[in-house]
Structure formats: structure tokens, C-alpha cells
Amino acid sequence: MKIAVSGKGGVGKTTISAFLVQALADRGRQVLAIDSDPSPHLARALNFPQAEDIRPIAEMRELIQERSEREGSFYRLNPRVSDLPERFMRQKGNIKLMVLGAIQQGGAGCACAENAVLRTLLNTLLLSKDEDIVIDMEAGVEHLGRGTIAGVDHLLVVIQPYRGSLETASKILAMGKDLKMNHLEIVANQVHGREDMNYIQENLGVEPIGIFLVSDEVREAERAGVPIYEAGSTFGKSAQDLLDILEQMT
Ligand SMILES: Nc1ncnc2c1ncn2[C@@H]1O[C@H](COP(=O)(O)OP(=O)(O)O)[C@@H](O)[C@H]1O
Ligand SMILES: [Mg+2]
User: Fold this and answer.
1) 250-to-36, 101, 105, 146 alpha-carbon distances in Å
2) Going from the N-terminus, what domains does the chain have, and what CATH number goes with each?
3) Higher-confidence residue: 177 or 220?
4) pLDDT tens, 139-187?
């Protein structure tokens, strides 16, 4: 199963991604975690050793330059990336981690050649047949190329029960509809109770397929710098419930 986790900064993408990765690993699956956030924290959230030393591929200027070399006035649409997973993948138990860093949107000031390298790498990783994949990514669907959209089974949009978050989610849902994406799902985070769920229902008109409550354990673990994942915690159970639902849908 291939899951992309998107949403506004700070909504809880990295936290939810980390729990999904670990919950899949707990089920005995081989999992590939991909961090495609501009400020990548998934390594830390997954408690990888020396997490702070892992350099995102997006920041390896020389390597990217070399792979995105222009041919005449065109840049390569299919830069060579096949050796990169082996070179830069980290592994811990049955979890593999690849830290890509930010893939920028096309358009003005776009570093298109560089982005072609990262996008090709992401799409190559998505072809993996033997692993479940969880991608932690910034922002909405407009950042995803068609190849990426086609490569994932579920594109989760994480929201919080606040006006700004729901407005962003509405835009993403509308865009998803335009792109004919029928695998776009809402996941609610930092929910306090029924009132929050009613607020989401009234303002978004879409029922979240997963709900994560505000968690003191997560908050405290994050602050103390200790592993945030706990299989038996309320958050851990919510991650398992969400996986069950996603698997039924796949
Ligand atoms: N349900 C929750 N309860 C309490 N704290 C949470 C919850 N979800 C996320 N957090 C905290 O909120 C902050 C932002 O979460 P993070 O996963 O880093 O968001 P994002 O990756 O979307 O920027 C982190 O400090 C995280 O520990
Ligand atoms: Mg994050």
C-alpha cells in the first residue's frame, strides 16, 4: 500500500506519517518512508540513529547538478537516478528511509532541472513492488506530478479543526476533483471531541476517514526528544484503525 500524507505546515503530517510507518512495520511489513518536506523531520520522528546528520538529496547541489545536466538548451526529462536509493537509503529493522527534501512547484523561478531529478527519484521509488510506502510531503496536490499521483493508492490530506486548515483542505479537494483523483481522503488531527467533528462536517462537508485526538503523550515525547511512537497509545490505535480502513479501500 502506498500512502502520501499532505497538508499545511504544522498540521501533524510528520507525526501521522511516523505512526503509519511504525504501525505498518508492527504488522511485519517492509516499509519505505520517504521524507519530501522542505524541513525534513521524519528521521527524528522515526527515531533513526544520527537523524540530524542525514542530508536531504535536495540539498546535494553537486549531485543534482551533475544528474540534471542540460543537453543543449533542454534539460534531461529522465535523469539517471537508479543508483541513488542504494547510496542514500537508511535502514532500521524493516523500515527504510529516504530523505528527499523539498520538491518545488513548477512555474516562476522554478529550478526545473533540479526538480526533475527529485521527481524522477520519487517516481522511481514509488515503483517499488515489495514495500509499503509512506511519503511525508509539504502542501497540496499541486506539488505532485501526474506520475506521483498515479503512483500512490491513497493521498491523505491532514486537517485540524480550524478555519484556515479547512479552507486549505477545501481547495485541495477541489483541485483533486479537477485532476480526477478519487483516492484523496481527509484525516483529522488534534481533535478534542464531538464538537470539533461537527465543525469539520459543517465546514468541509466531508467525513474524515481517520481521526487523531490531541495527545499529551505525543506532545511530551516530542518535547523530551524521546520516541513518539507507542503502539498501545491512543494515537497508535488511531494509526492502526486508519490503516485498516485504507486497506479495506485498496
Ligand atoms: N494529535 C496531536 N496531539 C498533540 N501534539 C501533536 C499532535 N499532532 C502533532 N502534534 C505536534 O504538533 C507539532 C507539529 O506536528 P508535525 O507532525 O511536525 O506537523 P507537520 O509535519 O505537518 O509540520 C509537533 O510538535 C507535534 O508533536
Ligand atoms: Mg513535517
Assistant:
1) 23, 28, 28, 19
2) 2-249 (3.40.50.300)
3) 220
4) 656 666 667 777 899 999 999 999 999 998 898 888 888 878 888 999 9
Query: Residue 144 class from Cβ within 10 Å (0-12 exposed, 13-18 middle, 19+ buried)?
Result: buried
Q: Can you list the alpha helix ranges (DSSP code H) found in 81-213?
A: 84-88, 112-126, 146-151, 163-178, 194-204
* 25, amino acid identity: A
Closest by CA position to 199, among listed 212, 191, 186: 191
Q: Is the shortest distance between the CB of 206 and ligand 1 below 6 Å?
A: no
Cβ-in-10-Å burial (0-12, 13-18, 19+) of 49 comes to: exposed
Q: What is the DSSP letter of 250?
A: -
Which residue, judged by its Cα, is nearest atom 10 of ligand 1?
12
How confident is residue 105, by pLDDT bands cut at 50, 70 and 90?
Answer: low
Q: Which residues contact 178 (CB under 8 A, 6 or more apart)?
A: none
CA 118, CA 129: separation in Å to the nearest integer? 20
Q: What are phi and psi of 3, to 5 degrees?
A: -125, 130
The upper half-sphere exposure of residue 102, i.e. CA atoms within 13 Å in the direction of its Cβ, equals 14
Contact status, residue 41 vs residue 14, Cβ threshold 8 Å: yes
Ligand 1 atom with minimal separation from the 190 CA: 1
Q: Which three cell numbers stand for residue 3?
A: 500512502
Q: Is 9 in the pocket of ligand 1 (CB under 6 A)?
A: yes
Cα–Cα distance, 164 to 170 (Å, whole number): 10
Residue 155 neighbours by CB under 8 Å, 6+ apart: 3, 4, 6, 141, 144, 149, 176, 181, 183, 184, 185
